[in-house]
Automatic annotation (TrEMBL):
Domain Schlafen AlbA-2 span(s) in chain numbering: 3-108
MF GO annotations: helicase activity
Keyword Cell membrane: no
Record key words, sorted: ATP-binding, Helicase, Hydrolase, Nucleotide-binding
Protein name in the entry: ATP-dependent DNA helicase RecG
Organism the protein comes from: Lachnotalea glycerini
A Pfam family this chain is assigned to: SLFN_AlbA_2
InterPro entries listed in its UniProt record: RecG_C_sf, Schlafen_AlbA_2_dom, Schlafen_AlbA_2_dom_sf, WH-like_DNA-bd_sf
Length: 461
């Protein structure tokens, strides 16, 4: 049997191997063989009878657990088999906690120890109660926003939200048996969650030519249920440039990355973030790309971009918080969020975001789509052509003709012809000015002049 996560070979016994037994008990259990070399060959031990009597008592005395210690034979060689079961409670050895992970044994400390203890109790970090927060401390606007979204998306009925705040929190399973609100309720609905959890906000920065060239920045604070819309609106009004393209007379705003895809990535960051790390979600925006980082973790089987965009189960890092966002209609269950990201990227014919998942957190790289890059750099044939309708219209719509032309173009959406007098009524401009507008639209092929006995009529092409 080869050495792996639950099998270990040692040539002779040393008391430091008690750490390994502790680690097995805290992980998945395992078997420790004494009397085998690193290749699994049986080399035997001389004091097997003494160890057979001493080890069970020593392990019980030092860790309070019972293990099976079996004497094994191969020919004249004797070796020991120590079988360790997984224990439902966390086991310590000399005041420290160990965990078997892969082929290594490591000590559990800090927030990792806290998570391990919560897991053994069937709890998660966001399910811990906060005795000092009361229902009346929650922000009413945040609760109203939740109710509004939940009803609009059909996740809750009008009747279900027409209850007191305490009943709503109980229905959402955000109150413990002693009527204390849970951390998830505080994060989602409390006015200032940073009072209780450092770093529970979103930090945004716009960078120039290098990572050190920070041009401007913002922070989004408040209840998490409100942070989502605030952040999306801020990104798409201040940080991402909307380049203008035209399809005929239709004005199209082209962003580097689809808004719906960004929204899903942001929601994933909020739900999967490790809030005990005390670091804000960080969004770094550049001219042609964007990074979203959070101090979180994915399930161990989802380690790459490719796996994330395949069919997989939904295992949120903060299940209580995820349930709030699910019932609000802001996120989907069963991993559907990645399907929505893919669908949104396809609308832009753009690349999927790239995920870098490590012990330091989750970094998502969102690259600009090709259409945006062509408009940005002017490298397409149409943008390089001086007679391009799209380029001329873009120039016209960025100058003084912008507002009058918008009114004329709106009129032409529902009508097949226009005259100078109609143009004057629409814009309030003089005959000469309207003639310039109409001639400009003739130049780009949107309308054509059709002179007749009743004067000059312009027909939509």
């Amino acid at each position: 049997m080869p050495e792996h996560q639950t099998i270990e070979w040692k040539e002779s016994w040393q008391d430091e191997y008690l750490k390994w037994i502790c680690g097995y008990a805290n992980a998945y259990g395992g078997i420790l063989y004494i009397g085998k070399d690193d290749d699994g060959n049986i080399v035997g031990i001389k004091n097997s009878r003494q160890l057979l009597e001493k080890l069970p008592n020593k392990i019980t005395d030092m860790m309070g657990i019972i293990v099976d210690v079996n004497l094994k034979f191969e020919g004249k060689l004797e070796y020991l088999e120590i079988i360790v079961d997984k224990y439902p409670s966390l086991i310590s050895f000399r005041g420290k906690y160990y965990y078997r992970s892969g082929s290594t044994m490591r000590e559990i400390t800090g927030k990792e120890l806290d998570k391990a203890m919560l897991k053994l109790q069937g709890k998660t970090w966001d399910g811990v109660p906060l005795p000092r927060i009361k229902i009346e401390d929650l922000k009413q606007d945040a609760i109203k926003l939740f109710k509004k979204k939940a009803v609009e998306r059909g996740r809750l009925t009008e009747e279900a939200v027409r209850v007191s705040d305490i009943i709503l929190m109980e229905d959402l399973h955000l109150v413990d048996e002693d009527d204390h609100l849970l951390r998830a309720a505080m994060l989602a609905f409390y006015e200032d969650p940073e009072k209780w959890v450092t770093g529970s906000y979103i930090k945004i920065g716009y960078f120039g030519k290098s990572d050190s060239d920070l041009l401007y920045q913002d922070e989004v604070h408040g209840p998490l249920i409100e942070q989502v819309d605030k952040t999306v609106d801020l990104i798409y009004t201040k940080y991402l440039k909307a380049l203008i393209d035209y399809k005929g007379i239709q004005r199209v705003e082209q962003y580097m990355f689809h808004r719906d895809a960004f929204r899903e990535i942001l929601l994933n960051a909020i739900v999967h973030k490790d809030y005990s790390g005390c670091n804000p979600i960080q969004i770094s925006v550049y001219e042609d790309k964007m990074y979203i980082w959070n101090d979180g973790a994915m399930p161990t089987n989802l380690t790459s971009t490719e796996k994330l965009f395949q069919k997989h189960s939904s295992k949120p890092y903060n299940p209580k918080l995820a349930d709030i966002f699910f019932k609000s209609g802001m996120i989907e269950a069963w991993g559907r969020g990645f399907d929505k990201i893919k669908e949104a990227c396809e609308k832009y014919d753009g690349p999927l975001p790239e995920y870098d998942i490590s012990e330091d957190g989750i970094m998502v790289l969102c690259k600009a789509c090709d259409k945006y890059l062509k408009l940005l750099h002017g490298n397409s044939e149409e943008n390089n052509s001086l007679t391009s309708n799209e380029r001329i219209m873009s120039e016209l719509m960025s100058g003084k003709m912008k507002e009058p032309l918008k009114k004329i173009l709106e009129y032409l959406k529902d009508n097949t012809e226009i005259t100078n007098s109609i143009g004057q009524e629409l814009t309030g401009k003089s005959t000469a000015q309207v003639r310039r507008y109409l001639n400009a639209l003739c130049d780009v092929g949107i309308i054509k002049s059709n002179k007749g006995t009743k004067g000059n009529v312009y027909l939509k092409q």
